[in-house]
Design brief:
By secondary structure, this protein is of the alpha+beta class. The protein contains 16 helices and 19 strands. The protein binds one DNA strand through α11. One of its GO terms (biological process) is RNA processing.
DNA sequence: ATGTGC
């Protein structure tokens, strides 16, 4: 169904802007935000997945591709696609992906950098003990069925209600820490049970807990508003919905593959979809929201354990939350399409929402700066804190989520010896703790794009502005 | 991403 065999070439529209005009089954164009260098490393599979997304029923405006995009399951990672609410629109479980609600939370501390440098090994060991990580990392908390149901409905607010955080944390979290409309009844028993021993665990893959230092400030006013200063110590948590979100995705991808509407063959089994108005579509929406809440509660719980660990080591320290934002979501939003305000269901996979100052959906807390955008780098490289800018109107109010993979996990394993990576990180002054040096190699810097170039590109297009660059000092990995 | 594939 998708125009795979046609010779598709993005047309250069402006500096760092490219467009794929509709051909074959494509209903809308694809708008790519990338430099020449970044577009040259996007493989044919990524381009194919973008044009496939642009071929789905009810797709609105254009499909957006971020500078960090690479191929994924169904949609590429780094893709934004909105679908009209109502009869013609669809929702796709593969479009959101397996790690529902995966995102980044950044906390700010008042601990002098010199003290962190002096006690780096001790801090790394304490965090590694306190925060379960890796595929088998199991939680210190054990949850019963009622608690799991509450978490799926309440998100981070559940953790705060149970003494794991402050209400200020929720103000500094997307959706105030709770996605409305979640329904645990649409989440299978198996998916719910998988949370039993997993709340407050980091997971594996590119998930991490990093202690970082603010390396440079690029927007003094926004940095002051965010509470950021040069040489400040920050904490970033990159994690998701663990087994629960994965199981929700598995369940609904299967169900959508088995229940495709008549006359609407899926372009690809990984991109099976359901009409938004169908029972299955509505059920997935409610289950996906529960998955987002699971991820929000997970990061809130991890943040609480990190705070407890730091308070033991630095009893007088103060740790506040800058922001928490997910980058694997489907969200109901209003967008202006061809001059008309439309209600859309916007899938963001490996892309964050980016509301500029003055946008009606942005709360008062960040109206002066625009919504914070947390860009996680690869292990051992920098992260960026950006704020959404006016140009985000052209990206359906979205920005990039990271550096983006350059090599597949298998390719990375071939090119990176685990031992030499550990040595290189140590040499770079980064204290790494991991349960699996083998999996660590898959996350080696050589497997990722240059986060500074990706960030430069995103900001050059006007979708976001640089606020601060963060450099890792301690990294806890699965 | 994932109690790692059907």
């Amino acid at each position: 169904m998708s125009p795979r065999n046609q010779n598709i070439r993005p047309v250069r529209k402006a500096e760092n802007r490219w467009r794929i005009y509709p051909v074959g089954t494509m209903r809308v164009p694809v708008d790519i935000f990338a430099s020449e260098a970044l577009i040259s490393v996007m493989d044919t599979e990524t381009i194919h997945q973008l044009t496939t997304a642009a071929s789905l029923p009810g797709v609105a405006g254009s499909v957006i591709c971020m500078p960090d995009a690479h191929s994924g399951y169904g949609f590429p990672i780094g893709c934004v696609a909105g679908f009209c609410a109502g009869k013609e629109g669809i929702i796709s479980a593969g479009g959101v992906g397996y790690d529902i609600g995966c995102g980044v939370r950044t906390l700010l501390t008042d601990i002098p950098a010199a003290e962190v440098y002096a006690r780096r090994g001790e801090i790394a060991d304490a965090l590694f003990r306190a925060i379960p990580a890796g595929l088998k990392g199991s939680s210190h908390l054990s949850l019963n069925a009622e608690e799991i149901k509450q978490i799926l409905h309440e998100g981070a607010a559940w953790a705060v209600r149970n003494g794991m955080g402050e209400k200020e944390d929720l103000w500094h979290t997307e959706e105030n820490g709770c996605v409305a409309g979640a329904d645990a009844a649409q989440v299978s028993t198996e998916a719910r049970q998988r949370l039993t021993g997993q709340l407050g665990t980091l997971g594996s893959g590119n998930h991490y807990l990093e202690i970082q230092i603010v390396d440079s400030i690029h927007d003094t006013a926004a940095a002051a508003h965010f509470g950021l200063a040069e040489n400040q110590i920050a904490i970033s948590i990159h994690s998701g919905s663990r087994g629960t979100g994965h199981q929700i995705a598995t369940d609904y991808i299967k169900a959508m593959q088995n229940a495709l509407p008549d006359g609407h063959p899926a372009p690809d089994p990984s991109l099976a979809y359901a009409p938004l108005t169908s029972d299955l579509g509505r059920r997935y929406l409610a289950a996906m929201k529960a998955g987002r809440n699971c991820a929000l509660a997970n990061r809130q719980t991890i943040a609480h354990m990190v705070r407890k660990t730091f308070l033991r080591l630095f009893p007088s320290c103060r740790i506040t939350q800058l922001y928490d934002v997910s980058h694997n979501t489907c969200n109901e939003e209003h967008h202006v399409i061809e001059g008309q305000s439309r209600r859309l269901f916007v899938h963001r996979k490996g892309a964050t929402r980016a509301l500029p100052s003055g946008h009606a959906a942005l709360g008062p807390l960040f109206d002066a700066t625009g919504q914070p955008v947390l860009v996680g780098g690869s292990m051992g490289t920098a992260s960026w804190i950006l704020c959404a800018a006016r140009g985000a109107e052209a990206s359906m109010y979205s920005a990039n989520h990271g550096a983006g993979r350059l090599l597949s996990r298998a390719q990375a394993r071939k090119r990176q010896q685990p031992r030499s990576l550990m040595d290189a990180l140590k040499h770079a002054g980064i204290s790494v703790r991991t349960h699996s040096p083998q999996l660590l190699a898959e996350e080696a810097p050589l497997a990722y794009k240059d986060v500074d170039h990706v960030t430069d590109t995103a900001c050059a297009t006007g979708i976001a502005r640089k606020v601060a660059r963060l450099r890792p000092l301690i990294c806890i990995k699965g």
